Amino acid sequence: MRTGDVMTTPVITVGPDTTVRDATALMAEHGVALLPVVSVDGRLVGVVAESDVLRGRVRHGPGDRDDALARTVGDVMTRAVCTVSPWTDVAAAVVLMVDRGLRSLPVVGEGGLVGIITRRDVARVLGRSDEDLRLAVSRRLDAYAGCHRWEVHAHRGGIVLCDEEDDPVQQHIATVLAAAVPGTVHVATHRRDSCPVHAVRGLSRPTVGVGTGDRRRQAVGP
C-alpha cells in the first residue's frame, strides 16, 4: 500500500507572505496542526505548525501579541521539511513519523505538493473492516474482469484471491489491483479448486463472497 493511496488531498496550504494570524485561523477552522507552505510557483518551501506559531509569539512576549500575529508565515515556518513521495510504502511513512516524532508528512510528486499523510489517515485505513475491504477489492476486480470471476477472501488486511484459471498474467494484474485498495496489507492468488483460505497468515473464519453481487457471508475454516 502506497502513501498516495491513503493521503489527504487536496491540501490546505499557505504562502510565505500569509500572516501568522491568518494561518492560525486556518488551523482552527480545519482542525489541523500543520500547514504546508508553498511558493507562487507551487514549490514546497516549508511547513508551519502550531509549535512554530507558539514559538513566534513567546519570543515577543505577552505584551507583543498583536505584533507576533502580524508576522508572516515565512518568519516562523520550518524550512527543513521531511517529505515522502506518493509511491512511498505506507509502512515506511509510519516509521518516519514515529522516528521523527511527526504527526504528518507532506507528499511531494514530480509536480510539487500533491497531498499530506497523517497518523489519522493511516489509522483510518488500517481500521477498515474485513467486509468493507472485501467489497472494495471485489468492486475493483469486477470492474476489470467482469462480475464473479474472482472469489475474494479478507482478514485483517490480508486478501486471498481465487480464480478458475491458472493464468500468471491475470493473477499479477489482480494482485496489483487488490494491493492498491486502501487497507490491503498483502495479497495471495490461487486457483479456486485449490484455494487455501489459510494462505493469509493467521486467517481464521474470514468473510467470504464472490464478486459484489453476492452479499452472503459464511464462515470458512475449522
TrEMBL record:
Q: Is Lyase found in the keyword set?
A: no
Q: Which SUPFAM superfamilies match?
A: CBS-domain pair (SSF54631)
From the record, give the transmembrane residue ranges.
Answer: none
Ranges of residues in domain CBS: 7-65, 77-133
Kindly give the SMART domains that the UniProt entry links to this protein.
CBS
UniProt cross-references to InterPro entries, sorted A to Z: CBS_dom (IPR000644), CBS_dom_sf (IPR046342), Diverse_CBS-Domain (IPR051257)
> What is any Pfam family matched here?
CBS
Keyword field: CBS domain
In terms of superkingdom, the source organism counts as Bacteria
Coiled coil (UniProt feature): none
Keyword flag Cell membrane? no
Q: Which PANTHER family match?
A: CBS DOMAIN-CONTAINING PROTEIN CBSX3, MITOCHONDRIAL, OS02G0818000 PROTEIN
Name of the protein in question: CBS domain protein
Native organism is: Actinomycetospora cinnamomea
What taxonomic classification does the UniProt entry list for its organism?
Bacteria, Bacillati, Actinomycetota, Actinomycetes, Pseudonocardiales
